[in-house]
User: Fold this.
Amino acid sequence: MVLQIGDVAPDFEAETTQGKINFYDWLGDSWCILFSHPKDFTPVCTTELGYMAKLKPEFDRRNCKILGLSIDPVDNHAEWAKDIESSQGHAPNYPMVGDQDLSVAKAYGMIHPNAKGSSEGRTAMDNATVRNVFIIGPDKKIRLIIAYPMSTGRNFDEVLRVLDSVQLTASHKVATPVNWQDGEDVIILPAVSDEEAKETYPDGWESPVPYIRIVPQPGK
Assistant:
């Protein structure tokens, strides 16, 4: 199954480090960052899990839950957490799915659907494609997919920036320009007519070319 932006994220039940969850029930009316890992006790992933724990208050502030996933049993995750805390200064403070049977990885298109068996005996290279980041909205639709190689650590500051953008653009008829940061100017969507835009932005907008209409970020 190849998932794309705008698709409904697959529901699933799984054991996690914080107990068994049904994904949709656990998500509720929150946003979610789901990020996956090919194997426990891998160096790059260790740094990522610690940094996400450090960033968790920022995601909380945005009504966004964090859910990790690794192709290993939950018991292994608990042991790995000790290494993460000792080496990164922060232990995972969010649930980690134990995807021992590969079912979630397959449902999200992160591993070949014909992959056989369980996590036992599989190496990180066998699971190398399980390196995705998904942003999922309260409507259960996928808003972002980024796939990383195993050798490149993820930039979760950038994921937080994108979350700010997708949350803003979900509630206002605007888009965010290159390198946008929260609080900066935005662009009125092309689908919004000038007449409609004047109702929302009576002071007008800046137009370096006719199809770019720049306005202050709504709500700032």
In short: Residues 8 and 192 are 26 Å apart (CA to CA).
